[in-house]
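Hey, can you fold this one?
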Amino acid sequence: MTEPTHLDGNVLAGPLSEVFSVDLTTAVRRCAVCGDEGVCAQLLVYADGPGLVARCPNCAVLVLRLVRTPRGVVLDLGGTGCVTIPIPEAR
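Sure. Predicted structure:
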C-alpha cells in the first residue's frame, strides 16, 4: 500500500471560494494543537478521499475538512485555532 501524497494548501482556493468571498489561502492560520502559524497555502492537503483534508505542516493534526454534498458544502475547521483574514482597508 502506498502512502497518500499531499498537495499544498493552494488547492483549497477554488473550493473555499464557493463559501468565502476572500482568498483564504493567504489567511494566517494557527494550529489549535501545536500553535504553528502560517498561511493556509502551507497546509498539507490530501485529496484522495471524497473531499479535501488539510493537516498542519508542523504536527500533521487535522485542521480542515471540506466536502461537497448534494445539500451543499460541509466545512469543518475544528483543528484550526483561529484564522486571520486579510481585508483591504476601506477607501
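The helical segments are 13-17. Let me know if you want another pass with a different chain boundary.
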